[in-house]
Write a structure and sequence with these properties.
With about 375 residues, this protein is of the alpha/beta class. Bound molecules: pyridoxal-5'-phosphate. Pyridoxal-5'-phosphate binds next to helix 9. The site of pyridoxal-5'-phosphate has 12 residues, from helix 9.
C-alpha cells in the first residue's frame, strides 16, 4: 500500500464555482489559474472549463505555454505582462494578452516590432501601490498606445488592496480614482474594464456598475471565500480535499507530552492518532489546534506538525482506528479554518500542497 496522503481535486466543483463567479459579477470572467491553479493543477482545471471559460489568467508566459501545449485555445492574460522584451515574439505567437503595469513595459512594447498586434490590459495603480501606472502616467501611456499599430485593443484594469474587508473605505477610494482616471483618459467612451478579484466579485457589487466588465476570480474558484464572514460561502464548493489516514495510535497519560518540542501536554488521558501528512506535504507547521475530521468527526491537531506526520486527538472518536480517513481540509474542515489556525490564508495552503498523490474526479462527466 502506498502512502495515503491524497489531494482529491473535484473538477465539477471547480466548474460550479466558475459559474457562480460569472453569475455574481455578470460580464466576462477570466479564471485565474496562475501558480498551477493555486496548487490544484492548471491543466486539469483549465480543461475542465475550457468550453465555457471566457479566458484564463496566469502570471507569466511559461504558465501560459503550459496551457497552450495542453491544447487550451481560450484567451490567456499574462498578469505580470512580460519581464524581458525578447518574450514578446512568443507572447504574440501564442495569442496571449498582456498586462502593462509599468512604464518600462509600455516603452519597450512600443519600440518593438511585432508579427501581429497584441491586446493589452493597461493597469492603473489606484491605491494598492504595488504595480500599475500612476494616473498621470496612465493617461500618457494610453495616448501612446491608442491606435498604435502594435496594439489591437486596450482593456483598462486595476486591482484592489482591501476588497476582502467590507468595512474598509479603501475600495471605494480606489474605485473613484479609477473612474476619474478613465474619464480623463477617454471621456465618456464605452470601455472594457477589469477590476474585480474574488473578494470584489463577492463583496462589492458596486464595482459592477461599469460598462463592459471582465472579472478576475481566483480563490473563489477553488471554493475558499476570501471574505471571512460572508453569506455566499455556502454556495462555493471546496475543490481540494486534502486527506490521509491514521497510521498509528497510542494512549498517553495525563501530564505526558507529545512530539517535537513537547508543546502539547495532555490535560487528560488522551488517545493520540498519528496521521501521514506533514509540512513537507504542505500542511502548515504553524497550525495550532487546527480542526481536522477523523471518520467524519471534527477533532484537532495536537503537538507540533512534523515533516511527514502530524498528531490528532482521538479521545472522543470511538470509531477511530489505524486506517481511518482523516480530512485535513475539504468539505468538513474549511481550508480557511486551518489557515486561521496557522496565521495564514487558504491561498498559501493550497499553493504549498506537494508530494501527496493528486487524484482528479469530475462527477459531471460520470453521470
Ligand atoms: C491573483 C490575481 C487575481 C485573483 O485574485 P483572487 O483574490 O484569488 O480572486 C486577480 N487579479 C490579479 C491582478 C491577480 O494577480
Amino acid at each position: 500500500m502506498s502512502r495515503p496522503a491524497i489531494a482529491h481535486i473535484r473538477l465539477d466543483a471547480f466548474r460550479h464555482n466558475y459559474r457562480i463567479a460569472k453569475q455574481q459579477h455578470g460580464g466576462n470572467a477570466l479564471a485565474v489559474v496562475k501558480a498551477n491553479a493555486y496548487g490544484h493543477g492548471a491543466i486539469q482545471c483549465a480543461k475542465a472549463i475550457a468550453n465555457e471559460a471566457d479566458g484564463f489568467a496566469v502570471a507569466c508566459l511559461e504558465e501560459a505555454l503550459e496551457l497552450r501545449q495542453a491544447g487550451i485555445q481560450n484567451p490567456i492574460l499574462l498578469l505580470e505582462g512580460f519581464f524581458e522584451e525578447n518574450e514578446l515574439a512568443e507572447i504574440v505567437a501564442n495569442d496571449c494578452w498582456l498586462v502593462l503595469h509599468a512604464q518600462w513595459q509600455v516603452k519597450q512594447l512600443l519600440a518593438s516590432k511585432l508579427a501581429k498586434p497584441v491586446q493589452v490590459w493597461l493597469k492603473l495603480d489606484s491605491g494598492m501601490h504595488r504595480v500599475g501606472l500612476s494616473p498621470t502616467d496612465y493617461i500618457s501611456a494610453f495616448k501612446q498606445l491608442n491606435q498604435h499599430k502594435s496594439i489591437s485593443k486596450i482593456v483598462h484594469m486595476t486591482h484592489f488592496a482591501n476588497a476582502d474587508n467590507l468595512n474598509s473605505t479603501h475600495t471605494v477610494q480606489q474605485l473613484v480614482l479609477f473612474e476619474q482616471t478613465m474619464h480623463a483618459t477617454t471621456g465618456d467612451a464605452l470601455l472594457e474594464t477589469s477590476l474585480a478579484n474574488s473578494a470584489a466579485v463577492l463583496g462589492w457589487p458596486q464595482v459592477f456598475t461599469q460598462q463592459q466588465q471582465w472579472s478576475r476570480p481566483g480563490i473563489m474558484l477553488y471554493g475558499a471565500n476570501p471574505i471571512h464572514t460572508h453569506l455566499h460561502s455556502q454556495t462555493l464548493r471546496p475543490v481540494m480535499q486534502l486527506s490521509s489516514e491514521i497510521i498509528s495510535i497510542q494512549r498517553i497519560q495525563q501530564g505526558e507530552s507529545i512530539g517535537y518540542g513537547s508543546i502539547f501536554t495532555a490535560a487528560r488521558d488522551t488517545l493520540v492518532g498519528v496521521v501521514a501528512c506533514g509540512y513537507a506535504d504542505g500542511y502548515p507547521r504553524s497550525a495550532v489546534n487546527a480542526p481536522v475530521a477523523v471518520n467524519g468527526q471534527i477533532t484537532q491537531v495536537i503537538g507540533r506538525v512534523s515533516m511527514d506526520m502530524l498528531m490528532v486527538d482521538l479521545t472522543d472518536i470511538a470509531s477511530a482506528k489505524v486506517g481511518s480517513l482523516v480530512e485535513l481540509w475539504g468539505d468538513q474542515v474549511p481550508a480557511n479554518a486551518v489557515a486561521n489556525a496557522a496565521g495564514t490564508i487558504a491561498y498559501e495552503l493550497f499553493c504549498n500542497v506537494k508530494r501527496v498523490q493528486f487524484r482528479y474526479s469530475d462527477t459531471d462527466l460520470t453521470t
